[in-house]
Design brief:
Order of helices and strands of chain B: H
Oligomer: heterotrimer
Helix content of chain C: over 70%
Chains: A mainly alpha, B mainly alpha, C mainly alpha
Largest sheet of chain C: none
Low-confidence stretches of chain B: none
Mean pLDDT of chain C: 88
Number of helices of chain C: 9
Strand content of chain C: under 5%
Shape of chain B: rod-shaped
Structural class of chain B: mainly alpha
Number of strands of chain C: 0
Order of helices and strands of chain C: HHHHHHHHH
Radius of gyration of chain B: 24 Å
Mean pLDDT of chain B: 88
Strand content of chain B: under 5%
Helix content of chain B: over 70%
Distance between the termini of chain B: 77 Å
Chain lengths: 230, 55, 212
């Protein structure tokens, strides 16, 4: 993909992210009415859940690129998969932090084992953090690319299995299950605010992704150049 | 500001802070890339000069 | 040679190597018993069944790690893996052969660990044995793949636990659930699901992990 096309993509994504998130934040703070049960603190939902969904999207994207790498053996998919995991981890950390703040204001603790979402993200965070350990300890090359791709695919398999495990563990360890009182159907204004924030977060992730990818590609090219010159 | 409002604002501010932190880190990375490019350009120029001398 | 033939040859090689050198399994046995003793001192006297079972599973996990780190050490030292990869056999035969070897080591360790647990803590029921058997499949399948990955890197003894532990959290849940609740069937079924999913994934992707 040539650089000018990627630059255009980047500008569009960044602009979209900026506008949408600004609008979304304004909507979430000023326009949307208070949730009936939780009250004001429910508004964290408008950032927390889009961030979580974006993290899942990043991991899914990473797995897709990983699959393409294993299928076609084209080297560029390795960097793309790596960058997607990188973005996923950033948004994963954000999910954990916003979720922790929400837990603190809802139930008084910064961490609750009873919250399925939080525990799942913790496990995923550990898994994908190990991804970086793997990459750092293996020499760059096709072998490392293959291994990273396989690991990224294991990640998406782990998501549903971990979720099941966490659900099963609840009956075991008997913590009080903490769920937020999110009504099953969002009202019109809530839905709009949520969607604006969701698309905004996805655009943010996309913009960061394109940026990061360019940086990583530059890194790789410069390394090649250095080797060619020495 | 009630405590609920404080926490909600904190959550939104954390997101902003992380994104800004990313921008700062990226600025450092760009600085490093620029330095590397300058270094490699110098290397290439020197190679070119040596080649001209040898020829 | 047929696929199954390759697998059996490779498994036999690992088992014979172990029988001759006798370094991995005795270490695993000693490790698991020592860990159980340590856990006795770590638990209060009125510890619940769940706590004691949980610690047994932790001990089994780390014993498996011990065995797995060794699984590819010899390979690396003598470049056997490269040779095997060049051989005209299906790469996943290497994986399956290794898995059989690792499971054999695990079973050997558990033959000592479970009676030790029954002696030190509480009696072992059929559900625990079934759970351990199912868990062994998952641990060996996933562990062999990850050990092959870690073996290619630098700090492989450090890397393998980091890769391994998040992936096997579901096994711990399934194992403890099967042995400490009233409804072991559900947890055993979950272990079966984990085994199916990750064994198939590991089988399919081993080829990519060991080749360029």
């Amino acid at each position: 993909m040539n650089t000018s096309l990627r630059n255009n993509q980047n500008v569009v994504l960044a602009a979209a992210a900026g506008c949408l998130l600004l609008a979304g934040t304004a909507l979430a703070f000023y326009w949307v009415p208070n949730a009936p049960i939780e009250g004001f603190r429910q508004r964290i939902f408008y950032f927390h859940v889009p961030i979580a969904l974006t993290a899942y999207a990043c991991f899914g994207w990473a797995a897709w690129k990983a699959l393409r790498l294993l299928w076609t053996r084209e080297r560029r998919y390795d960097l793309e998969s790596y960058t997607a995991v990188h973005m996923g981890v950033i948004f994963g950390i954000l999910t954990l932090v916003t979720g922790s703040i929400w837990a603190r204001t809802s139930w008084g603790h910064w961490w609750v084992w009873g919250s399925r979402q939080l525990v799942l993200f913790l496990v995923l965070f550990l898994f994908y953090a190990a991804y970086f350990m793997l990459r750092y300890s293996v020499e760059p090359g096709p072998r490392r690319a293959n291994m990273s791709a396989v690991y990224a695919l294991f990640g998406v398999a782990l998501i549903p299995i971990s979720f099941l495990a966490i659900r099963l563990a609840e009956d075991l360890v008997h913590p009080v299950v903490f769920t937020h009182d999110v009504q099953s159907k969002l009202t019109g204004s809530q839905l709009l605010t949520f969607l604006v924030c969701l698309v905004g977060m996805l655009s943010l992730a996309g913009s960061l992704y394109v940026n990061e990818l360019t940086g990583k590609r530059l890194d790789a090219r410069l390394r090649e150049l250095r080797e060619a010159l020495q | 500001m009630s405590t609920a409002e404080k926490y909600v604002t904190a959550a939104y501010l954390v997101v902003l802070a992380v994104v800004l932190l990313y921008v700062v880190l990226y600025a450092f990375k760009l600085g490093r890339l620029e330095r590397e490019v300058a270094e490699l350009a110098e290397l290439a120029r020197r190679r070119e000069a040596e080649r001209k001398q040898a020829a | 040679m047929t696929f199954l033939g390759d697998v059996l040859v490779l498994a036999r090689k690992d088992l014979l190597l172990e029988l001759r050198s006798r370094d991995t399994v005795p270490a695993m046995l000693l490790f698991v018993v020592s860990t159980l003793v340590v856990f006795h001192f770590a638990l209060p006297s009125d510890a619940s069944a769940t706590a004691e079972t949980g610690l047994l599973w932790v001990a089994l996990l780390f014993t498996a790690l011990l065995g797995l780190v060794r699984a590819f050490v010899a390979e690396r030292e003598e470049r056997i893996l490269d040779g095997l990869v060049l051989a005209p056999c299906d790469r996943s035969a290497i994986w399956l052969g290794k898995v059989i070897g690792v499971m054999a080591f695990l079973v050997a360790a558990e033959v000592v660990a479970l009676p030790a647990y029954a002696l030190f803590f509480r009696p072992v029921g059929w559900e625990l044995v079934a759970a351990v058997a199912l868990a062994d499949v998952g641990l060996a399948a996933v562990g062999t793949l990850l050990a092959a990955m870690a073996a290619a890197g630098r700090a492989r003894e450090l890397l393998l636990p980091l890769l391994f532990l998040p992936l096997v959290i579901p096994i711990v849940v399934g194992g403890v659930g099967a042995s400490a609740t009233d409804d072991p069937g559900r947890y055993l079924a979950f272990l079966g699901l984990y085994d199916a999913v990750f064994a198939i994934l590991s089988w399919a992707s081993f080829e990519y992990v060991v080749t360029e």
